[in-house]
Write a structure and sequence with these properties.
This protein has a seven-stranded mixed β-sheet with strand order 25-37-36-35-26-33-34, with helices on both faces. Strands 17-16-18-24-19-22 form a six-stranded antiparallel β-sheet, with no helix packed on it. It has a six-stranded antiparallel β-sheet with strand order 27-32-31-30-29-28. It has 34 helices and 37 strands. By secondary structure, it is an alpha+beta fold. It holds the Pfam family E1-E2_ATPase.
Length: 1053
């Protein structure tokens, strides 16, 4: 058997070499031979035709030869076994999966195989696949040698190399072998590796703890970026989250969390890149870890299961799945049927809300504990001494100059300084260890200076009988108490910045009514289930007043749906069978049956939340100011405090200012020390760090409730500068549902044949006008059905962007489009047709010509009504100082008529999608800040080219990558809302900077004693600490005022 196998392999390899060489030569000849230029039908024109026929004949002969060789192999060897090597060489890009693969042409052109560099996970066995290109291969023996080298690597499951395509597909186990080792093995074999994806990119989200200011967020980013395998890290201060792109072959999320903790901050994993749809399942009947592992392996073997995570201690399993292949109920049923286990849905608690409440409670408790010590201390140091009969006992001397008041103040201050204030020491230690400084450093320096100087005075009073110094224990205690009060109020205010997002998250109901349908379409049963158990294609019953749990399509019933919580539109929308509904909206009246189309992370509500969360995590360019200041803020403050102390101590010691300036019971050193401590604690870097992210959080959340999704601070900052808005026509300024108002024949063709031909062509187009024409043509036919037969099959369908479409219907060549397409195709247009065009274009109608075999057969006149609010919106934008321009692929007459109706003066017509982008670039070259408003269908190039892209009328399709701002409704007034909200937000950010910088710029000189010589006003350290806390609170409260935002314009009929 071994010799027979060797002989068979040798014969196959020999035949492969022959076929490969012949095929490669034929391809090279056919691909690189110059195409014959078109020439008149003269005697000399036969040569190019003969050459073309020769090339085609050669290709056909080679294909026949390959087929014959396969048959010979079958006859000679017996059962034909498709060796992967042979398949990879003869059929480039083809993977051997079964008999269906044999239908692929053996000599498929190389252009038909797109070689994308990819790395995907084989979820069944934890195997990954990587595809890359190899240079320097000359024959099949090269591919064989590379395959043998790769297969020798421990961890490589399979390797298929195609010499013709210069491509390798390698399946490997990442735990055993890395992609770098695979690349080096090929290079060591003497071949060049190109377009090699040397890493997978995975994404994880972390919740962070312990960040106080911009310096903290920068420290976390810096710590993450220094970790090997981390490609990008973005940290949101206000959101207290981090998004990390990393190479899973190099590092794991646990290592990333460890790096954050080493930097002195807390971190926990809240999501990863495979968190598409997942279900949490609680298991019962587990007796050993082997049971859990068996369940995990069983689940991983199911189709549609992406990943499985098990919790041995809690007996819980988390399963990520593809909703198109399986669902949560199916997974639970599978576990229950696979053994003696009980499985039930487990809904984990919302840890973010729990942690927020815990943080608020922690700061409140710490503040109350500090008050328990600081209030009596304040009484002993500042109140009772002012009341002689009641405070005399505090001056009783215990030994030498040590009084009862000193000892009491020391005892009351110490717990606050070292127990309650421990967080400041810990924060300072971690900050200094990573060679940075934050607010904790300032607080620790200020309180330690006050405390340890006070301890010095106590010791001095104990050992001296003439010392008359004053302690500052109340300074340290009151300072910590006020800072904790500020943190408590700030945490409450920061929690409210995400209220809008929390309300969106809570829109979906917890339960749903699931219907079980019989084969005859009747309802068999109704069951109330958790919304987490809904699967695609389920039939749900929605009662009046109930919310839709997921996205779906109405299959039975009529009613009105309130979509205000998603779109901001207060008026309920009428819904009939076939209409889409959005999860989280309310069924006002009527009992509706819906078929589920999207669940979990695919629903419109989930996508809205994802966009808003991503926007809140992104860093706005305006925040760069705070980032720059934070780098040198704390060192500058420390230096300023030291200079302040010197500036007051040295002149005082030298007698350069009157002794009367020094308060009683103080000396020059103590006065200078108080000024220095006040400078330390009045400066607050926190307010600067919160100025931008809190405003962005509130505005993006508020915009989401108004139906305006803003993708981050960058989009906000660009949108507020917009002075020119370019509108698409169809679906943007117009309703987007064209209607055919007339049809005319210009030849002797019958109306039925004309309609049938038009339907055959336009049925392949997704353009709104094409759909309107198809619908109208069908209505003109008997029984409203097209009579296209097999002899009228559509072939060679071709789209001409901005002009129309063309194809062959049977033996007829048909063109459907505008005059531009007719001119390009040399189709004559007579005066009668021109008159028909001009008459309709004056009425803002679009004319679509149908040409058959080079002659105009007829034409359709299509109108698309203008949105009723369009003219009012354009006028309002003008009052905002924004110039409006319309750009469309429609003809000039129709475009001019529409523009005149809505009040737009500048029009660009008869422009294809790429031309729209060019017009926007021309405007930008003239110094304009341009926003493009389009329906997202064919406007992607223009949306990307514009400074700000706005996709309008996205409906449930909210994840439009090209747009910076997504307007869920089709209402143009949201364009005004988007621009106005961005302007209000940027203004609020600037005001926040005024608050933040104002406290520091005004507070530090006053704390340093600039006003003291002239007015006698000085800022005690405890009051300086209160001002520092107030600065952060004022910034957050200023951002919260954006929650009162109202639309500047609302159209009413």
């Amino acid at each position: 058997m071994a010799s027979a196998g060797a002989v068979r392999s040798a014969i196959i390899a020999l035949l492969v070499l022959v076929i490969s060489a012949t095929s490669a030569a034929a391809r090279e000849y056919t691909e690189f031979s110059p195409a014959p230029a078109p020439a008149p039908m003269e005697a000399g024109a036969a040569a190019p035709a003969t050459l073309s026929m020769a090339i085609v004949s050669a290709s056909v002969l080679i294909s026949v030869a390959e087929a014959v060789v396969y048959v010979l192999i079958e006859l000679f060897i017996g059962s034909l076994s498709f060796d992967p090597i042979v398949v990879s060489l003869l059929v480039p890009g083809m993977d051997v999966n079964g008999k269906d693969d044999l239908k692929i042409p053996l000599l498929e052109p190389s252009e038909a195989v797109v070689l994308d560099i990819k790395s995907v996970r084989d979820v069944d066995q934890g195997v990954r696949t990587i595809t890359f290109k190899i240079g320097g291969m000359e024959c099949a023996s090269c591919s064989l040698s590379i395959e043998s080298v790769l297969q020798e690597l421990n961890g490589v499951k399979s390797a298929i190399v195609s010499s013709l395509q210069g491509q390798a597909v390698v399946k490997y186990v990442p735990e055993l072998v890395g992609v770098k080792a695979i690349k080096e093995a090929v290079e060591d074999a003497g071949f060049e590796v190109t377009d090699f994806s040397d890493q997978d990119i995975a994404v994880c989200r972390l919740r962070l703890k312990g960040m106080a200011c911009t310096s903290c967020s920068e420290s976390v980013e810096r710590a993450l970026s220094m970790v090997e395998g981390v490609k990008k890290a973005v940290v949101g201060l206000a959101l207290e989250e981090a998004k990390v792109n990393y190479d899973p072959n190099v590092i794991t999320p646990d290592c990333i969390i460890e790096a954050v903790e080493d930097a002195g901050f807390g971190a926990e994993l809240i999501g990863s890149g495979n968190d598409g749809n997942k279900v949490h399942i609680k298991l019962e009947g587990i007796v050993s870890p082997e049971d859990m592992n068996a369940i995990k392996c069983s689940l991983e073997s199911l189709d549609g299961v992406n990943h499985v995570e098990i919790d041995m201690e809690e007996c819980k399993v988390t399963v990520g799945y593809d909703p198109d292949l399986t669902g949560s109920r199916s997974l639970i049923r599978f576990i229950q049927e696979s053994g003696h286990y009980q499985a039930s849905l487990y809904i984990p608690e919302r840890r973010h809300e729990t942690e927020k409440n815990h943080e608020i409670k922690m700061y409140r408790n710490q503040f109350l504990w500090s008050c328990l010590f600081s209030v009596p201390l304040l009484m002993f140091s500042m109140v009772l001494p002012m009341i002689p009969p009641y405070g005399n006992w505090l001056t009783y001397k215990l030994h030498n100059m040590l009084t009862v008041g000193m000892v009491l103040r020391w005892l009351l201050c110490t717990p606050v300084q070292f127990v309650i204030g421990k967080r400041f020491y810990v924060g300072s230690y971690h900050a200094l260890r990573r060679k940075s400084a934050n607010m904790d450093v300032l607080v620790a320096l200020g309180t330690n200076a006050a405390y340890f100087y006070s301890v010095y005075t106590v010791i001095k009073a104990l050992i001296s009988d003439a010392f008359e110094g004053q302690d500052f224990f109340e300074t340290s205690t009151m300072l910590i108490s006020f800072i904790l009060l500020g943190k408590y109020l700030e945490s409450i205010a920061k929690g409210k910045t995400s209220d809008a997002l929390a309300k969106l998250t809570d829109l979906a109901p917890d339960t749903a009514c699931l219907l079980t349908m019989g084969d005859d379409g009747n309802v068999i049963s109704e069951t109330e289930i958790s919304s987490q158990l809904i699967q695609k294609n389920d039939i749900l019953k929605i009662f009046p007043g109930s919310k839709f749990p997921v996205d779906g399509v109405i299959i039975d019933g009529h009613g009105y749906v309130n979509e205000s919580m998603i779109t901001g539109e207060a008026i309920p929308v009428a819904k009939v069978p076939g209409d889409r509904v959005i999860g989280g909206t309310v069924n006002e009246n009527g009992c509706l049956l819906i078929k589920v189309t999207h669940i979990g992370s695919e629903t419109a509500l989930s996508q809205i939340v994802q966009i808003v969360e991503a926007a809140q995590l992104a860093r706005a360019p305006v925040q760069k100011l705070a980032d720059k200041i934070s780098r040198f803020f704390v060192p500058t403050v420390v230096a300023a405090a030291f200079v302040t102390w010197l500036a007051w101590f040295i002149p005082g010691a030298c007698g350069l200012y009157p002794k009367s300036w020094i308060p009683k019971a103080m000396d020059e050193f103590e006065l200078a020390l108080q000024f220095g401590i006040s400078v330390l604690v009045v400066a607050c870097p926190c307010a600067l760090g919160l100025a931008t992210p809190t405003a962005v959080m509130v505005s993006t959340g508020k915009g989401a409730t108004q139906g305006v999704l803003i993708k981050g601070g960058n989009a906000l900052e660009k949108a507020h500068k917009v002075n020119t808005i370019v509108f698409d026509k169809t679906g943007t300024l117009t309703v987007g549902k064209p209607e055919v108002v007339s049809v005319v024949l210009f030849s002797d063709i019958s109306m039925d044949e004309f309609c049938n031909i038009t339907i055959a062509v336009e049925a392949n187009s997704e353009h709104p006008i094409a759909k309107a024409i198809v619908e109208h043509a069908k209505n003109r036919l008997p029984d409203h059905k097209s009579q296209i037969g097999n002899n009228s099959a559509v072939k060679d369908f071709e789209v001409h962007p901005g002009a129309g479409v063309g194809c062959k219907v049977g033996d007829k060549t048909v063109l459907v489009g505008n005059k531009k397409l007719m001119r390009l195709s040399n189709v004559p247009i007579n005066p009668e047709i021109e008159n028909y065009f001009s008459d309709n274009e004056k009425l803002a109608r679009t004319c679509v010509i149908v040409a058959v075999d080079g002659k105009v057969a007829g034409a359709f006149a299509v109108t698309d009504p203008v949105k009723p609010e369009a003219a009012h919106v354009i006028s309002f934008l003008g009052s905002m100082g924004i110039n409006s321009i319309m750009v469309t692929g429609d003809n000039w007459s129709t475009a001019t008529a529409i523009a005149k109706e809505v009040g737009i003066e500048n029009v660009f017509a008869e422009i294809d999608p790429l031309g729209k982008a060019d017009r926007i670039k021309d405007l930008q070259a003239r110094g304009k800040i341009v926003a493009m408003v389009g329906d997202g269908i064919n406007d992607s190039p223009a949306l990307v080219a514009a400074n700000v892209g706005m996709a309008i009328g996205a409906g449930t399709d909210v994840a439009i990558e090209a747009a910076d701002i997504v307007l869920i409704k089709s209402n143009l007034e949201d364009v005004i809302t988007a621009v106005d909200l961005s302007r209000k937000t940027i203004s609020r950010i600037h005001l926040n900077y005024v608050w933040a910088l104002g406290y520091n710029i005004l507070g530090m000189p006053i704390a340093a004693g600039v006003l003291f010589p002239f007015t006698g006003i000085r800022l005690p350290p405890w009051l300086a600490g209160a001002l520092m806390a107030a600065s952060s609170i004022s910034v957050v409260c200023s951002s919260l005022l954006l929650q009162t935002y109202k639309k500047p314009f609302t159209y009413t009929k």
